[in-house]
Amino acid sequence: MPHPRSVPSASPGSAHREAHLLATNESPYSPLPSVREAIVAAALGANRYPDPGCLRLTEALAEHHGVPCEHIALGPGSAAVAQQLLTTVCAPGDEVVYPWRSFDAYPLLTDVARAVSVRVPLKGDDHDLSAMAAAITPSTRVVIVCNPNNPTGTITRRDELAAFLGAVPENVLVVLDEAYREYARDPEFPDGVELYRDRPNVALLRTFSKAYGLAGLRVGYLIGPAHIATAVCGTTVPYAVSAMAQAGALASLAAGGELATRTAEVVEERARVRDTLVALGWRVPASEANFLWLPLAGRSGDFARACARAGVTVRCFDSEGVRVTIGAPAANDAVLAVAAAFPPYV
Ligand SMILES: *Cc1c(COP(=O)(O)O)cnc(C)c1O
Q1: pTM to 2 decimals?
Q2: What are the backbone dihedrals phi and psi of residue 333, each rounded to the nearest 5 degrees, phi first?
Q3: Rg of the chain, C-alpha, whole Å
Q4: Pocket test for ligand 1, best of 84, 100, 108, 150 (most atoms within 8 A of CB)
Q5: Where are the alpha helices (DSSP H) in 95-200?
Q6: Across-strand partners of 19?
Q7: How many CB atoms lie within 10 A of CB 47?
Q8: Which residues pair with 325 in a beta bridge?
Q9: How do strand 173-177 and strand 291-294 relate by DSSP bridges?
Q10: Tens of pLDDT, residues 66-112
């Protein structure tokens, strides 16, 4: 999303050593054998169009979450679903309130919907929910809560989120972007599926791109009130979710236990990397996602370049910070080696 025209910098085979890709929060694991089999089987039918309604996957998700099928809208990635949602809900000139810094697709998706971005600065590393509530005007149609937040990794807790939802007028839709929720371990982390049930103006976004490890297949979804889900489905490009993506997502749901083991490994690595950085004197916000935020301000570029020299790509937000995805242990070790040699943190 952030670099639509860029080419991946790692080209295995041409590089003298393998690059570590820690810039886009992907899973370091390739698909499980059962998932690979399902994808290959679907690929063999690639002469046929996929099921445009994603019926089996929708039914499986409905059962998985305990929600009606009519409350689910699938699309080619949750960012695409978010774009469909904003385009559906907003008229040109309507306002979309979101935290900043947060997911860098929000401004782009808001622009595409011809809506107006209202960015509410984070308070420290966290959402400033009272400022977000105060930013709501009669023109506001949507408020986005990114939980855990990308790129800071911080969360909005259950009580504060429930209080916030109580303060938002019913004609404003609150979108909970839960792309990283599988990595959250804080017992106070709220479950959007529980929060949306008795509220007519709450929808949530989930994806198979992160903990489910299917970023390259493009499949994500919305859960929300029937009128919202139906409207989003109505804006979809025909056959947007490929048969391979549908099959891969279905097989991944069935392999939930194995995927949870992988997620737990990433969570363990997250603690190891953060603990090591903190011991080196770095300030690193506690993260509930599969990445860490290094608020290096003016030294962000220097650190990102030092990582690049060590064969590690990270995401640099100039003069703000660097976001580092938690990868396989060897990749994480490479980052720690760069950090240990970086001039003392100030
Ligand atoms: C990665 C990400 C997404 C999901 O993107 P897909 O389109 O599903 O691949 C959504 N929201 C946030 C905050 C993300 O970081």
Answers
A1: 0.94
A2: -60, -40
A3: 20
A4: 150
A5: 105-112, 129-134, 158-167, 192-197
A6: none
A7: 5
A8: 291
A9: unpaired
A10: 999 999 999 999 999 999 999 999 999 999 999 999 999 999 999 99
